[in-house]
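assembly run, all chains below
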Amino acid sequence: MKKKIWSIALNLTLKDTNCKAVILWVTLLSLSLYGCKKFIEVEPPVTSINSANVYNTDVTAASVLTGIYTDISEGFSSGGVASMTLFPALSSDELTLYGGVTSSATTFVPYYTNSLTGLNVQAHSSIIYSTIYTINSAIEGLTKSNRLTFSLKQQLLGEAKFMRGFCYFYLANIYGDVPLVLTTDYKINSVIAKSPKSLVYAQIITDLIDAKGLLSEKYLNGDAMTAYVPGAEERLRPTKWAATALLARIYLYNKNWSDAERETTSVINQSSLYRMTDLAKTFLKNNLEAIWQLQPVTKGFDTEAARTFVLPSSGPGTLSGRYFYLSKDLMDSFEPNDLRAKTWINSVTVKGITYYYPFKYKVIDPNADISEYTVVLRLAEQYLIRAEARIQQGHIGDGISDLNIIRDRASAKIPGEVKLPQLSISLGKDDALKAILHERQVELFMEWGHRWFDLKRMGQVDEVMSKVTKVKGGIWNTNWQLYPFTLLDLKYDPNLIQNVGY
Amino acid sequence: MQVSASSFAQKITLNQKGITIESLFREISKQTGYSVFYSDKKIDQNRKIDAHFKDTPLEEVLNVSFKDQPVKFTISDQSVLIERKEPTFLERLANRWASIDASGRVVDSENHPLPGASVKVKKTGKGVSTDVNGKFFLRGVEEGAVLIVSFIGYLPKEVNASANMGNVVLEQSLSKLDEVQVIAYGTTTRRLSTGNVTTIKADVIEKQPVNNPLLALQGRVPGLFIEQSSGLSGGGVKVRIQGQNSIRNGNDPFYVIDGIPYISQLLPSASYIGSPLNGGSPMNFINTADIESIDILKDADATAIYGSRAANGAILITTKKGKAGDIKVDLNVQSGFGKVGKQLDLLNTQQYLSMRHEALKNDNLSVSPTDYDLNGQWDSTRYTDWQKELIGGTSKYQDFQGSVSGGSTTTQFLFGAGYHRETAVFPGDFADTKGSAKLSVNSNSKNQKFKFQASVSYLIDNNHLPNYDQTGFAVQYAPDAPALYNADGSLNWSPDEAGNTTFDNPLAYFYRKYNNKTTNLMANTYLGYQLLPGLDLKSTFGYTNLQTNELNTIPQLSFMPEYLPYNFRGAYWGNSNVNSWNIEPQLTYNKYIAKGKLDILIGTTFQQRNNHSLGLSGSQQISDAVLEDFKSALVVNVSSTLEETYKYNALFGRLNYIWSDKYILNINARRDGSSRFGSANQFHNFGSVAGAWIFSEEKFIKNALDFISFGKLKASYGTTGNDQIGEYQFLSTYIPINSTNPYQGISGLKPRNIANPNVAWEETKKMQGGIDLGFLKDRVIFNATYSFNQSSNQLIDYPLPSFAGFSLVTLNLPATVRNSGWEFSLSTTNIDKNDFIWKSNFNLTVQRNKLLSFQGLDQSSYANDYFIGKPITVQRIYHSLGVNPETGVYQFLGLGGNSTSTPNPFTDQTVFVDTRPIFYGGVQNSISYKGFDLDFLFQFVKQKAFGNHFGYSPGSYFVNQPISVLSRWQKPGDQSNIQRFNSDLSLDQAAAKASRSDANWTDASYIKLKNLSISWQLPKRLKNMLELENCKLYVQGENLYSITKYDGLDPETKSLSSLPPLRVVTFGVKISL
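ok done. output:
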């Protein structure tokens, strides 16, 4: 029917139409048919770079990795970069939440009282996995690319693998078993199941060993190719030593004492690069103790830790947004004459109550030049790792010597002042291990969840937390040492199984 | 044949087929030397004959050539005179039964020609249409035969055929069936339409004091559901035509203004802080008073020609044009006020305090230093009605409209200007001000072959609001909260001894301002040329430019004193621009073929849209006074940028054939290409077929059922598409990371999205059937339509678990959603006697929705959101088992039929509820008596929603509660539906779940007196005295009264945090000079 009428119409038109009209019809039709395809092609938006060519030039390829550090410096875990410090500190025995159970800062209450659920837990995984996506796409893109300067390609691949190991370390310690995402394919990743923690650690170790082989020994500029003038390094890009230091930590967590000792020794031996500093300098930018630091990336903002934890003169306040102060447990754990309690801790007294707060990072003045960088890896931890590895292998004396290096730094230098005593090298193994846990507590407090992870890996978590949680107003259960996955993740990933107890 | 000339031996030899009379005459002159005289007005010199003469005498040549023609000729003095033959009486008598050529001109009552009118012989159905000058020439008609002359929008007229009929005047039809309906690329009437189209005209729109023309459609159009998401002027409006087709992406209709596509969604706010307008509506930037008509296109027949863009129907807006005649000046001034229509019944101070004390007692807690409302920090004798304080103000409404129009028969113009201002109900200086101007010119050549139309409109909107809608605070602040100001006029933060703020002063939030300045330029041009009778070439050219400048300010004044060391004052700018151009060349052809009229349209579309936005932030200005100056910010940052291009190209056609005014066939086709899709899926074909049978034209109906004045059955089937996803979803790209202090001085890059190169159209198949009936000379008009639409290949933003790195990916889901529904409308003229007219309109829509299939649903991220066989708007909620009389805690149905107070969100949400309206519609009445007019509309919606019965965790926070919580459980054995007051948050979750249980799922149906308008037309004598052409005084009201059981603020917004639609009353006068 349609065809017939068409032909009638066409006939009629053509019959009594002059040339003019015929030409118009034909032009119009052919124009639109031809025009179609050409017309609707669009160039990629000018606000972005095509994924096909981002790994074709040195500058853009390096920018992707720089982007990862920028992102992490703005946020890791959940919220800012300090949230990887904040949440474990709340869950463990480091922080007190102002208002406790009834605090109006309801986000933090379940962390504080160890009463998380899939509903009230923060999406720790979402920021970390989004970083992992970028890392995986960088590894895929860099591997395929053959147009980059060779040394750059090595360095960037090394950085990417280092960062992947770094991310999975925190995931494994927050959640235990986690999905091991190694591709960018959403079809795989959206239905991925958890891998056992051991498999995750195996991947971390593979990545870090690769990274060690690929990364530069020297600190590199923003171009990820040229090294800084010695002595003027910005310790902002991961180096071979960062990978080694992290690998030492991984071995330690896996009770692989000898490998841990070997890796950490190779870092400690880099004495031209790394030396223990004064307590007052440990968190300054580019200080000699720092192995890897993150630079604050918002103008006018210093470290997030300072902005989160330094209390105003009015103390912690429900409405002032400063809810946290150091717990009595932590304050009590400092030995007398430990300078760390004076240099790295400050206090404010309101209505006769003294609130102590972490003061490793001090600067909150927006107009001051940035003098502090967020420290991720530092030499003191390497000594602590080696001390523990040595003690575990029965070399107690060597281990205690390493510990004493840390204690010495925290001890008075001015003649006449009472010193922090050195530990005896003849301690028994159990006492020596207790000394390790204690030293780690007072050295690494309020840094990247060390205390929370230490309690767990050293088997102390149930003993310590069953007391602490009760005081905080909750009830401890050994299942609470792992955070739950969010309900959204459970909803969107059909193969994800919630952690036990949730 | 009379021959009065004597014959001479003049011979002609000529052998030529199809020679014109003119050439024949020339040949005669040549061969005989005779001159031929004739009047070209009397003789059709272009008539062709076949000449086969060989030495034929001149006389015989003439005889043969003018055989059967009313012509006589005289041969004398070497000349031939040819004249029209005046018939003799007998011949005239004979001719009554013989055929003639009828000619005439069809005009309207103002003597304007009606080109394209149809002239048909009633008996044979043979017909022609009038030319651009309204003239027709109908060959070979019986003299005196009945001709039917008809034209869209006019009453058909029967006239007797004669050779020269002069002007045939058609009267405009007052029947609703003959009102012009604007459809895609053309017009039709309800009588002849095959599609499902509803038209709302200016006279209805202008009765409503609304700031968005879409709101004037509420309750008036079957199949169209409109909901205001906020009472803020300029706020968002949800529009759904025949239900929700798409699970996730784009359920907005396609908007077309004067033939040019208009955006259906604004760009997201470019300001970092965002806009309080809840999405906003692009229609806020159209001056309602400029609108002549709005046509709502629903089915495939009406929309398939728009192809991929019209799966959700189309809304066509036609603006006013000038009319030929004297210059006319129209003025319309109205002013009035608006208020929030309803306050919630909340606890007074005494009830609030005893609730808080009881809550502490229940948990064995004592008043703590942070319980400011109880511990003496706040004055416990105070009472503040925060609803009155924060949203209880009066909005002032002002609207001025003026226009000048007029013109000649060849050129008409209209110039209009408008001013509109509405202040907010909040404390402080907030207002939405609009100014607009419009110029339109229509012109045509004297021979009517060339046509030209152009119009330009420009609107400026300046909207001042707080950064956030403060309605939520108004219903939550504790009634004993402190005074807003200190004695010295500064904000009261009610500091405790340590200097800590104890009162989150709401006024501080009103210091944080949002300013939206939008300008909208729309220009369109139409050029048309008649190539041949019936064949027209035309094209539209359109350009629109919507520019939005947003500003949020956070002055230092708005911070709690403790924040001052850490927070900086700042300001956030967002500049966005959407500009688009559109060109649509078209060819139309119409012709009477056999007993029918054929209309053919063929055209092509070229469209491009460019989106651009830039978000900036600045902080650490030296003073609040210079916040708005970007230069004064110490730290500046680009928070977002957007550059997008959308290109669209299509080829389309339509064929319409109306046989004997009884049978109508309409076919649409479109081939679409869009830049939103990857190269594999850029093109797609859409089309529709529709038919209608006007059975009331059948003799047997006319004879048997003469009370039926009109009857039509119609049906259509076709496909339309949906491409409402963002741009570039198929492209994998990296974007710069924006940081004010770049890492190592280098700007980082990161992936923007998970790209899906295979993303393609969502397709909606629409089937529709309906009946139109008119009774008692169309005094009663009834329509019933059944629609059956299925959308498949669903385009969605598929949510991903965090492990995938991004929260979503755009893809086509193998899912099918069905919307089916009945639409009814009934228009009646109840009384039409002398000066008293009473008319009613009623419409009702019953809509159903069902998820038909969803491949792999249980393995997808939607496993808990959608359910096969249920509507896509369904939600799962808990089944409440009331309050446990022993413990005083809410309990719910848990797994295995147990009752539990901590139900599992996955397994225990067992009750299905549907958020969709079950039916909706409106009843409108208009009564006029002499100069008085009364018009009112009741809108009704049957629906359910979560109510406000359970409050917000009563006792736990400094939050006021609805009085319904007073019936709480107090001691073991109490039977209550409210759990015990709680302060340590241990019952927080149970309270939240009770709010999401079937106990809180309440009837949110409503009947609203949506609109009321009373007007008085000044009597003629008075008008003459005042020298006014026309003068009308009126009172109008919007959202005047609601009948509802809903216990929240408003059943339309169903929200406790957004401002309800205001009750508005205005007074005005309308004058024509």
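Residues 349-362 of chain B form the longest helix (14 residues).

Residues 473 and 908 of chain B are 32 Å apart (CA to CA).

not gonna interpret more than that til we talk
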